[in-house]
Request: fold
Amino acid sequence: MSELSLPSTEQADQLVRALRPDLRLVRMRPLTGAVSSKVTCIEVRGAGGFRCTLVLRQYGAASLRAEPRVAGNEYRLLKLLSAAGLPVPRPVLADESGAIVPGSCLLMVYIDGERVHNPADLPSFARQLAAALAAVHDCGLTRADVPFLPDIGDRVSDELETGPRAREGVVPETAIRSALRASWPPHQVNTPVVLHGDYWPGNVLWRDGRLVGLIDWEEAAFGDPLADLANIRLEIAWHFGTAVMDTLTGEYLRRRVAEPVGA
Reply:
């Protein structure tokens, strides 16, 4: 992300005034954890004693190469998910021009929470992750609601055309890719849904042991819900073992049994 600079105080102040003319910048600080973007916390005040904390996301070059409209697309998706009652950041402004702050950007309302990598209660942690994912997949958004999202099958097809990126001694990537190509595309069994696209503990916020936020939706897609479930199963198995993975899977299936296509 070295190619993207954080906004200056003047730029951040101009951006919040573009959102609402009475708003003024109080303070700003960089947030850690983002890989494909730069994220800044911005505190503002407005008329009548109004105060609010916002998050500014500036998208990196790789994200923009993959999807030039990533800021607008994420804005539209978060509006829909927020309206559906999901715990996602509420978007307030998207700017793809780069005229105010460096790069394409999205301004959202801050969620007061933190990432948790060593939970005190692993079963509760796994069950809450599963419940949140089931809620996303059951939010009711159809393909017609999100025509701007890529198809997960197309994304995987493109990925299969690239060469191996892992060391063969660590992961038998060549054999995995060969097996996938031989049976691709898979038979469509489950009704397609909105997918987070990168669902793992690093993209979930917690407060006092309770899940409060699902963040980083720039890799969202539309397709088989098992794509998200497979990703979080693998992450949980790597970090906490297969018993916790099974707890998560069982809770997800208890809450959501995907209907066959055409049901």
User: Anything to note?
Assistant: The mean pLDDT is 91. Helices lie at 9-19, 61-66, 70-83, 122-137, 152-160, 173-182, 226-240, 242-255.
